[in-house]
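Hello, quick one for you while I still have it in my head. No rush at all, and the record is pasted right below.
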Amino acid sequence: MNVEFFLRSHPLFGALPASLVAELAARARTRAVAAGEILCREGDAAESVYVLLSGRIEVERDGKGAVASLGRRGELMGEMSILTGNPRSATLRAELPSELLEIPASAFQQALDRSPDLGLRLAQVLSLRLSGAASPPSSTRRPCYAGFLMAGPQRVPAARALAAQMVGVLGRPVLVYDLGATQNAPGLLQTLSNVPVEGQEQFVRTLAQQNPTGVTELTGTIREDHWSYFLSILRETYDRVVFGIPIPFFQPIHKTVCEACDVLVPVCGREIPADSAVEKLRALGKPMVVARTQGRARAPWVGFAGVSDLAIPASEEDVADPKALAPIARKLLGRSIGVALGSGAARGYAHIGVLEELEREKLPIDYVAGTSMGSVLGGLYAAGRSPAEMAEFSRDASRLRAIFSLLDLAIPTSGLLRGRRVEKHFRKLMGDVEIERLPRPFRTVATDVLTGEEVVLDRGPLWKAIRASISLPCLFEPARHGSRYLVDGGVTNPIPVNHLLDLGADRTIAVNVTAGPPQGARAPGILTVMMNSIYTLQTLVSDARSSLADVTIVPEFGGLSWTDFAKAPEMIEAGRAAVRRALPEIRRLVT
């Protein structure tokens, strides 16, 4: 970097005599610091003044963590101690890999002595800073930088499509920059080197081209040793950037860019990132949202800390379809939505009405979790079945003949029903689709009847997981799952909102269908006694679990009972009505 040119274009040093600028440049040195590295400590003697070239620096005082975050290029740090002669008043730590210009205290003091104008300008800067009238620090405008990692020729159009979806949500420009070009060729930064520091942001805007979708694209190559500086310019110019990063990787430039990103989005299609590359990505400590193309299984490393996944409703060839990357865009912007469907036997049919009404409101559902009857309908929805299809299934299943056809009585050792016919029915309904290949991330739960532990079911055949989650104690024989004996998940977690959060949902909706047992005048039968006892206990747990959600939908069932399987249409309508009552809350959730 041309230090003398940088100082001449700096607002504070630019008015100094040329000879003095040359002397400062000769004595200054550039210093690179890694993320987490301490630049200076509170209480240290002041030996230097720092000017930020690129990156971001945290300011810590009294051991209480960061009190400010400085990311504006040209930001001056450490000058107060030089002026007062006191020790450092704060610790400076690199929040991101950063580069600074370090000016010795003696050189800075000599410049002050020889140029009254420098002292006057510095006093103005300090006055503005102390009064709070200075420009807001860049930390008030937290950028979202996404590294979009993909193999093949679809990377560039897919990155544009992702940015277009982000523009549609935000209503603000999103920049796309692809790293596929040869990065060591002369290019963009050589052009910028002739522009004063205070004009570089506007100059970058003039170089970028905006297409009709609102996506802004910047082209031109950046030398590897200039990237940190270029990223700093971008942070002051665009608060949303999508970097297209080719697979296979990992070149040094890829690491530099990935370190600057807030989130990484590797695409798993025909070519899945190699384990060694994934380990390098994970070592960066960045959140990852794995985008898997249609029909691809969840990558084995999804589920590690900070790693979630979302399915793209398109093949690898069609990944650049305008709507295919909408779930990823919502996740990057913190607006992904998950729905938890609670247990409730026949009342669970209300979930169909809830999903139908949410779709009518055009509410996108990115994650699904369910327990017991909620696992049946949630699993079908995650597999791509529509509420209309589920309503048709419910009408068929609610006929008495259909209900009785699923009953296979057992000698009552661990349950009245074997559950084999139910298994056969679910397998016919769902096929052998595996949970990790579902179009929407899905999770259900069951209960280990021997230990009382909650068991998370998020892999393997969908029908097997659902069979375990609906195994009402005493009614069904427990489902075998390895060495475990599993019963209804509602015993431990009737509304699994916490699993939506684990999957990665930013905003959550719970559907509680156990609230308010019906009042009846007739003497209850043995089945009613058993189910009312279980679901009355679940009601208490459901209230606590649903409190984790941003919005809770509670259908009103009147006299409809948990055992009224023949009244599916009335249950579905109760779900629709509950969503209509909750619409004000739901609409606030998505804005």
In short: Residues 132-141, 182-186, 400-404 have pLDDT under 50 and may be disordered. The first strand starts at residue 29 and ends at 33. The chain has 21 helices and 26 strands.
